[in-house]
Design goal:
Heme binds at residue 446. InterPro entries: Cyt_P450, Cyt_P450_CS, Cyt_P450_E_grp-I, Cyt_P450_sf. One of its GO terms (biological process) is brassinosteroid homeostasis. The protein is α+β, with helices and mostly antiparallel strands. It contains 16 helices and twelve strands. 55% of the residues lie in helices and 9% in strands. The strands form four sheets. The chain has a five-stranded mixed β-sheet, covered by helices on one side. It has a three-stranded antiparallel β-sheet with strand order 4-12-9. A two-stranded antiparallel sheet has the order 6-7. Helix 13 packs across helix 16 (449-466). The chain binds protoporphyrin IX containing FE (HEM). Protoporphyrin IX containing FE binds next to helix 6, helix 12 and helix 16.
């Protein structure tokens, strides 16, 4: 009897622990990070800021200790494959508020901005929100992407002049097309391709040609490999310990700098090239000052980081959506074949287009815009608050990370009807103000946006005039991290268009 009572008592104790203490402990853990940061914030302002107005953090929750909301982010992006529900869940839980939420992500207390107005506010206020990379040397300490204020504006001026001026785009249009034409012929010979892989190859060949006038060679293969590892390291934890991705990336960065420095020296002695590197070397600012050698090298490497993967993914999504949208492809083909014929080509032999042809390709431009909107290649951009910043009654505390969630604007049915359907005709009307932020905004808006559009346009022209393709797995799942792409890399059959 006594033994039975003892056993019942032990059970009751364990059940009490299971249904009482454990949930309580979990609840305490769940709220501890949020409570900690809110309490620290309240203590700092003691209710009121210097302006006498009550200070509040934006609504939200900072997740579990150490990890914050990282697991929730991974759940929505990786497992559930519903990336927009990460922000959607916040909107349901806390309302749309000021288009800002507090969270804890990537190891920092953070504010997420996710409405057109809030995003614009952060992107435009460069003096309040700066850039700070965990490992600046991976991006290049003298790179435009790493600089703030006046030195940023100066470097940006050089880069825009080098890649965005009509004469550069004109040259680029000419030099990239032979690679594109040869690549498409090669894909058709293969018959079956993984589009992501093949597009990456031709994009890289074009980058080497545009930036440093290099044709594919064992050296460019090595450069490609180093860039791959550098990009892996940029996304990894920033531990400089042998064997880690970050450590390997630092080594690759040094190798890349060395190769580009050597190339730069060669230009000084015997080479005269019409490419981005020579352009950057020769330009002068308003005071007649040129860029230093280190600035040229760091910025060339940065431009490859910014333009390589992004352009590859944009082209891959264009090819993918066109495979699934025969009506769009037919309209695109009609425009491009007409363009080709007007220049003396035929259906199967698209002639090289010139930069002057591009403004005439109106439907193609809509396909390009729609592709880039839907691709959401940069789902968010990172800033850090340089000081306490007030926004619509909320305070963004100094030192907190600010994540400008570009993706949420492009997939919001309030701004784009049926936002997840590929519909280039929606561009018959311009987007509502502030709702097209694929290239960011403000003083850091993508410096290569025209170049990216140009490259997608060129490949679309040659593709649709001469080829047909079908996805092997049209229902393949989509991975959203680190960038959105079908799990099979858009495997497809690819052949010459039969007349
Ligand atoms: C579809 C392709 C592309 C997309 C979606 C894209 C997107 C972006 C975004 C969102 C930013 C803003 C980053 C921020 O605010 O922190 C950015 C910046 C930048 N992008 Fe792009 N980009 C693309 C292609 C390119 C290309 C082809 C180049 C040049 C080769 C390039 C060069 C740059 C540079 C230099 C910056 C930094 C600008 C600055 O800090 O002033 N991008 N890009």
């Amino acid at each position: 009897m006594v033994a039975m009572e003892g056993a019942v008592g032990a059970w009751a104790w364990w059940l009490g622990l299971l249904f009482g203490a454990v949930p309580l402990l979990c609840l305490a853990l769940w709220h501890s990070t949020d409570t900690w940061h809110c309490a620290a914030f309240a203590l700092r302002y003691r209710g009121r800021g210097s302006n006498g107005i009550r200070q509040r953090l934006p609504p939200g929750h900072m997740g579990v200790p150490f990890l914050g909301e990282t697991l929730s982010l991974l759940w929505y992006f990786k497992l559930a494959r519903r990336p927009d529900d990460f922000i959607g869940a916040k909107k349901s839980a806390y309302g749309s508020a000021a288009g800002m939420y507090r969270t804890h992500l990537f190891g920092s207390p953070s504010i997420i901005a996710c409405s057109p107005a809030a995003n614009k506010f952060v992107l435009q206020s460069a003096e309040c929100f700066g850039i700070k990379y965990p490992v600046p040397e991976l991006i290049g300490t003298m790179s435009v992407a790493n600089k703030n204020g006046a030195s940023h504006a100066r470097l940006r001026g050089f880069i825009l002049a080098a890649i965005n001026r009509p004469s550069s785009l004109q040259t680029i249009t000419t030099v990239v097309q032979p690679h594109v034409v040869a690549a498409l012929r090669d894909w058709a010979d293969k018959g079956t391709i993984v589009a992501a892989k093949e597009i990456k190859k031709v994009t890289f060949a074009n980058i080497c040609k545009m930036f440093i006038s290099m044709e594919p060679s064992p050296l460019t293969d090595k450069i490609d490999m180093w860039f791959g590892k550098l990009l892996d390291g940029l996304r990894a934890f920033p531990f400089d310990i042998p064997g880690t991705a970050s450590h390997t990336a630092r080594k690759c960065r040094r190798k890349l700098d060395a190769v580009f420095r050597e190339e730069l020296q060669a230009r000084k002695t015997y080479k005269d090239c019409d490419d981005l590197m020579s352009g950057l070397m020769q330009m002068k600012d308003e005071q007649g000052k040129k860029l230093s050698d280190e600035e040229v090298v760091h910025n060339i490497v940065s431009l490859v980081i910014a333009g390589y993967e992004s352009t590859t993914i944009a082209i891959m999504w264009a090819v993918y959506h066109l495979a699934k949208s025969p009506v769009v492809l037919a309209k695109l083909r009609e425009e491009n074949v007409a363009m080709s014929k007007s220049k003396g080509g035929s259906t199967l032999t698209g002639l090289m287009i010139t930069h002057d042809d591009i403004p005439k390709m109106k439907y193609t431009a809509k396909v390009v815009e729609e592709t880039i909107r839907m691709a959401n290649i940069a789902p968010m951009v990172h800033r850090v608050a340089n000081k306490d910043v007030e926004y619509r009654g909320y305070t963004i505390p100094k030192g907190w990370a600010v994540l400008v969630w570009l993706r949420s604007v492009h997939t919001d049915p309030n701004y784009y009807q049926d936002p997840l359907s590929f519909n280039p005709d929606r561009w018959d009307e311009p987007a509502k103000p502030g709702t097209y932020q694929v290239f960011g905004g403000g003083p850091r808006i993508c410096a290569g946006n025209m170049l990216a559009r140009l490259q997608v346009t060129i490949i679309l022209h040659h593709l649709c005039v001469g080829y047909q393709w079908e996805l092997i797995n049209p229902d393949a799942q989509i991975n959203y991290l680190p960038h959105p792409r079908p799990v099979d890399g858009a495997a497809m059959t690819f052949r010459k268009l039969s007349t």
